[in-house]
Amino acid sequence: MPLAVDLFCGLGGWTDGLLAEGWRARGYDIEAHEYGDERYPGELVLRDILTLHGREVADADLIVSSSPCTEYSYMAMPWTRAKAKAAAIRADASGELLRQLNALFDAQFRIQREASEAKGEHIPMVVENVRGAQPWVGPAAWNFGSYYLWGDVPALMPHTIKGRKNPGFRFDGSGRSFQSESVDRHVGEGLKVPSAAGRRTAPGLGARFTSRDCGVEAAEGRKGAGAAWFDQNLCALPSKSSRRKAASAKIAKIPFALSSHIARVYRPAEMEAAQ
What we know:
The protein has 275 residues and is of the alpha/beta class. It has one domain (3-274). It has helices spanning 13-20, 70-75, 80-91, 96-101, 103-119, 134-137, 178-185, 227-232, 242-251, 256-265, 269-274, and strands at residues 3-7, 24-29, 43-46, 62-65, 125-129, 142-144, 147-151. Strands 3-2-1-4-5-7-6 form a seven-stranded mixed sheet, sandwiched between helices. Helix 1 packs across helix 10. The longest helix is centred in the middle third of the chain and has 17 residues, at 103-119.
């Protein structure tokens, strides 16, 4: 049975699809995300990803990863402090601020490179983050709704369609965000999530701030037309509160339609022969 390594695994959105397609999965995260009955479904290793060397995961046949999107999402917002932070990074001639910003994102590709060298062959990796990461790390290879992908993204991916609004749906403590509801009802469609009051992440780009971007530090911004959205999604709570962390972890989960597709694409030939 092939092994997939899930970095920044959270509640295991990537792993759910992998397990369903017959993979083993080992997840790495700096903390265990356990909220009621919800927790990572595979083997969990508590580890700071920055300290992980690729040789430790050289037994993997596939690496999937979803590094934190908080800073990218925050700087994509039309807030004075967010704009000032982005401007400061761009103005830093030393590049140190950009290096710090991308430390976790870059660590994923370092680990893949080290793991591949230790194994003696290329280990494919698919990385997920938000649209707002693109100005800092480069264009994504593809997107599944508001989930943007880098790395060894297959040429053939599920189609996406124009998002459908679902007025009044919110994260209310039930464990379901608008995004997870949409994916459950319209599997494989990669639905985009409507923003509050049409707020956009970057003027002129048409990108909307979605529930995938819930990780922004709300205290840094000013609550205006989107106040109700933040309140409903618990983003107004302190960043370390258990309810805030639970909401963010649930909202950030990779859709099953996407994770299971990647699992099928990279299924080793021996698995196909056994089917």
